[in-house]
From TrEMBL:
Transmembrane segments: none
The entry's keywords: Signal
Span of domain Beta-glucuronidase C-terminal: 389-497
Leader sequence segment: 1-20
PANTHER family: BETA-GLUCURONIDASE, BETA-GLUCURONIDASE C-TERMINAL DOMAIN-CONTAINING PROTEIN
Organism: Lojkania enalia
Protein name: Beta-glucuronidase C-terminal domain-containing protein
UniProt key word Signal: yes
Organism superkingdom: Eukaryota
InterPro entries for the chain: GH, GH79_Enzymes, GlcAase_C, Glyco_hydro_b
Phylogenetic classification of the source organism: Eukaryota, Fungi, Dikarya, Ascomycota, Pezizomycotina
Keyword Signal appears in the UniProt entry: yes
């Protein structure tokens, strides 16, 4: 009797918690045909990055499991970007036993490191991934010995098939005063690499890696076009133009204002459109965002929790709708905003999976592993700061719809919801809906971080449970299409994927 009563109470409480009150309704009309600007997003769009000098910290089974779990949902191997500020100032000592020795303070991504041969051991891990590595570049007269020491060892440790690109320096706008100077140094680096390695003849270079401070304000000292005009692609082997993106400095507070603000995201990404269009349409290259994050620094730990996950989902979806070919979530072991903390003993507790990791399986599933026909992604402009929607075509067919409800629910009090009416669904009578959910809303950091779970379609990633392999049963809900319309409720601070095939 007692336990039955308890069960009934528990069910009522659970129900109340899971419920959200619909306070608004929004109709979204699906396009009747594939728009001509739908972008055929490459299957290796989702990506992670490790700051160069900190690669050895990721040389463990846990990191390998998280990358493999992401890769298992993708139609191509994910790319790991090894790069960053430290990647330009590393030096190499062939007699050093230590993988990476910090020789300046503080030991952050702008510190000087000396690498030894064992640094490259980490590259034999991550067999489920391919890599972008960075040739260290400096202002004027690049150090050939240094470039060869790094690139040759990295290339040999990875093997040609796992090298996706070689970046020519990082955030070069900070130290190369004009396009001609960058191009001269980049060509010196290319010559050093091609002299010491047989790279074959395919496209391989990644260029500029423009700092977020320049790219997102439209105030770079020289543009992508300027770099091409100065001859960066004289050898015809530039593969990627890369720029960096951080949503905000992290110093100003306000989760809704910065991370959960679609208007702010659109305004900032608009500054990349000239570079994206030039790269794709004139230079015939691919445009990637090779270093990205929500807050650049972190002044409030809430900036690293579930709001950062929702930001990342919305950012990646919007970026792909603009024609961006890859987004790399960047990290170093003790950066608070990281996707995971790979080890213990750092300023941030670890090892643990952090909230933003959950954006990766969501994005991978939206892109789809096996598809019939060309992918094509578009944003549906809802003219809203807090609600966004995206459609993924396969060929001419609408295959998936992603919807993000960015209104903040911080875990206290009543949770509101928006009712969505998806109009114009043809050819199917039912859909499967998957949710990116946290009972605690933006207070959730995931099971490892604060025990406030985050789930993607019912699944979780945790160091404690099984070293990041992913666990839990896939949970989806089947909803009926009635007269070409599908109705669904999305609680505040939640994102969903609606599958129509
Ligand atoms: C050039 O690189 C090598 C290898 O890292 C290093 O030992 C040497 O000090 C560098 N030279 C200069 C001038 O920085
Ligand atoms: C969202 O961003 C826009 C543009 O930056 C800004 O004008 C607006 O105040 C922000 N919204 C909130 C709720 O802070
Ligand atoms: C959907 O349901 C209608 C009415 O029951 C039926 O006529 C139609 O064949 C169904 N379509 C599909 C694609 O299952
Ligand atoms: C949170 O996740 C852990 C690990 O999967 C699980 O043991 C626990 O029951 C979950 N808590 C809730 C409230 O679902």
């Amino acid at each position: 009797m007692h336990s039955l009563l308890f069960t009934i109470i528990a069910l009522v409480v659970y129900h109340a918690r899971a419920q959200a009150t619909v306070t608004s309704t929004r109709t979204i009309a699906l396009p009747t045909a594939r728009p001509s600007n739908a972008f055929d997003v490459p299957p290796d769009f989702p990506s992670v990055g490790f700051e160069t000098a900190f690669l050895p910290g990721y040389n463990n089974q846990f990191s390998d499991n998280l990358v493999a779990s992401l890769g298992s949902r993708m139609g191509a191997k994910p790319i790991i970007r090894i790069g960053g500020t430290s990647g330009d100032i590393i030096k190499f000592d062939p007699g050093q036993a230590e993988a990476a020795k910090c020789v300046s303070t503080p030991c952050n991504s702008a510190a000087e490191f000396i690498l030894g041969p064992s640094y490259f051991n980490a590259l034999s891990r991550f067999q489920f991934a391919r890599f972008s590595v960075q040739a260290p570049l400096t202002d004027g007269n690049p150090n050939r010995t240094n470039i060869i020491a790094y690139i040759k060892r990295a290339y040999e440790a990875l093997g040609p098939s796992r090298v996706d690109a070689i970046a020519l320096g990082n955030e070069v706008n900070w130290y190369e005063n004009n396009a001609a100077q960058y191009v001269a140094d980049a060509h010196a680096a290319k010559d050093a690499v091609t002299f010491s390695l047989d790279l074959g003849s395919s496209e391989i270079w990644e260029v500029v890696d423009t700092a977020s401070e320049h790219a997102s304000t439209g105030k770079a000292p020289y543009t992508v076009k300027g770099v091409y005009d100065a001859g960066i692609n004289r050898d015809g082997r530039v593969k990627y133009v890369a720029e960096h993106y951080y949503q905000f400095d992290g110093k100003t507070l306000g989760i809704q204002a910065h991370l959960l603000n679609h208007t702010a995201l659109r305004a900032k990404l608009a500054n990349y459109e000239t570079s994206i269009q030039y790269t794709r349409n004139i230079a015939n290259g691919k445009f990637i965002l090779s270093e990205t994050g929500g807050p650049l620094g972190v002044s409030d730990d809430r900036q690293t929790l579930f709001a950062n996950t929702l930001w990342s989902v919305n950012f990646q979806l919007y970026a792909m709708s603009l024609g961006v070919s890859r987004v790399t979530g960047v990290q170093r072991p003790e950066a608070k905003r990281s996707l995971w903390i790979p080890m213990s003993g750092l300023a941030v507790p670890g090892p643990r999976v952090q909230a933003p990791y959950y954006a990766l399986p969501f994005i991978a599933d939206f892109i789809g592993k096996t598809v019939s026909g060309n992918r094509g992604v578009i944003n549906i402009d809802l003219n809203s700061a807090v609600l966004s929607a995206y459609v993924m075509f396969e060929g001419q067919t609408v295959a998936r719809i992603a919807i993000v409800n960015l209104r903040e629910y911080a875990g206290q009090g009543n949770r509101n919801a928006v009712k969505i009416k998806l109009n114009g669904i043809v050819g199917v009578n039912q859909s499967r809906v998957m949710r990116l959910h946290a009972d605690a809303g933006t207070a959730a950091g995931g099971f490892d971080v604060n025990g406030k779970n985050i789930t993607w379609a019912g699944q979780q990633w945790s160091y404690k449970v099984n070293q990041g392999k992913g666990h839990g049963t896939v949970t989806e809900k089947t909803l009926q299409v009635v007269g070409k319309v599908l109705e669904l409720v999305i609680p505040d601070s939640e994102a969903v994927i609606v599958h129509l095939k």
